[in-house]
Task: inverse folding
């Protein structure tokens, strides 16, 4: 069975500084990895995904993530954070060996960007 | 293109009442799922479907039923509401890649 860990409940960063949100995973087969963002009282919005190919994936709103197979990690990064990036971020994984294709989410990391 | 539409947005139920949360998608996606979101627990899978007529249980299925008679619709039924089912519910659909989420239903059981 697949699992996802987001070790930080909250990340605080000053506007203009780099932002990193950590994610590690566990799967039996190959991982399909996703990042989503949730703004208050809204649904989840897709940011980016890794299925195969380049380990560095670029997504929406200037975010990127790096797939590291040896460390089983998929950390989300942004070079220069904005106050508007303050939101709840979720990492999710699907296991390539799961024929039903279930998506497993982490507990979420609250990002707070201060002016 | 409406995407994934959930109704209602808000609902208050009394313990023991039943209700159905509606979910519809217009993207012809085969895979649909229901999650509940609780503070500090992320999103937990309740039930999912890989196509019309095919459903299965997720991580927290107790107290909920689903059916998938059409590709577009995937309703979630609460059989006898309990305070532990107070949560925010999200429906999602996908084909092969990323999932698309509805705006959620905030349910309170008193």
Result:
């Amino acid at each position: 069975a697949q699992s996802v860990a987001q070790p930080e409940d909250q990340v605080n960063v000053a506007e203009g500084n780099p932002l990193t949100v950590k994610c590690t995973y566990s799967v039996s087969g190959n991982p399909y990895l996703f990042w989503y963002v949730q703004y208050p009282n809204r649904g989840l919005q897709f940011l980016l995904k890794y299925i195969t190919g380049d380990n560095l994936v670029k997504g929406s709103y200037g975010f990127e993530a790096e797939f590291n197979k040896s460390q089983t990690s998929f950390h989300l990064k942004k070079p220069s954070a904005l106050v508007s990036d303050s939101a709840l971020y979720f990492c999710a994984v699907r296991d390539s060996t799961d024929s039903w294709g279930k998506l497993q989410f982490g507990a979420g990391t609250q990002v707070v960007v201060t002016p | 293109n409406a995407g994934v539409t959930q109704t209602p947005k808000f609902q208050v139920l009394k313990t023991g009442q039943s209700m159905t949360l509606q979910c519809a998608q217009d993207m012809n996606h085969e895979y649909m799922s229901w999650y509940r979101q609780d503070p500090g627990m992320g999103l937990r899978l309740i039930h999912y479907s890989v196509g019309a007529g095919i459903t299965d249980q997720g991580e927290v299925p107790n107290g909920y039923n689903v059916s998938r008679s059409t590709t577009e619709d995937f309703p979630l039924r609460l059989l006898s509401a309990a305070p532990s089912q107070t949560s925010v519910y999200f429906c999602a659909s996908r084909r092969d890649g990323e999932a698309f989420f509805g705006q959620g239903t905030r349910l309170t059981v008193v």
Chain B has a mean pLDDT of 94. Residues 64 and 78 of chain B are 5 Å apart (CA to CA). Chain B is about 0% helix and 50% strand.
